[in-house]
Amino acid sequence: MGHREQLLAAARQLLQDKGYARITTRDLVAASNTNLASIGYHFGSKAELLNEAIGLILAEWTEQLAEIAMADPSASPIERGVSAWTAMLEQVRRRRTMSLSFTEALAQAERSPRLREQFAEHYRRCRAQVSALVAVSLGAGIAAEDPRCSAIASFVIAACDGFAVQCLLDPDDAPAPDQLRAGLAALFAASFPQLAGPPVSLPITPSGIGS
Question: 102 Cβ partners below 8 Å, 6+ apart?
Fold first, then answer.
């Protein structure tokens, strides 16, 4: 394992253990068994290193949520969304420090065009991943590049981010799976009354996510 990989591994562990705002370059050097020059050489700065590690974690979380959402091939798109959001809320509760690290990093990115672009690229990759899943869920020959898939993907990601913030602030009052199902069912029934039918019971997909 080279210094780049050692630094990323150390950054990931420190993000979980200490949180973004408390990590120092000295922490990173000690945990990675590298040196200060390696941070500048491979990443440019401590913040860019930490943001790169966060990007890798986000990609992994997206893959894990995708596996949960797509586990049942007969599930509807709404069922898949509820399963993914349920799993995401569980992950936020289990890995609170890591979730807070993401929020702290976003605040730092606003002050630096370079960090902001780094985060924007993370979201572009995430949106592409989710768009591909949306295309599969919609079927009917729709491609992931269809603007509708990207718009739905943006909505799904926005819901995940919003639920995560609410869960961080008030974990005991975050929406439960049955509340999400009932709320979405009411929303769609009111929006598309011509499609309303008898109530449907939506099963909850198991939502365990590996640490």
Answer: 20, 54, 58, 164
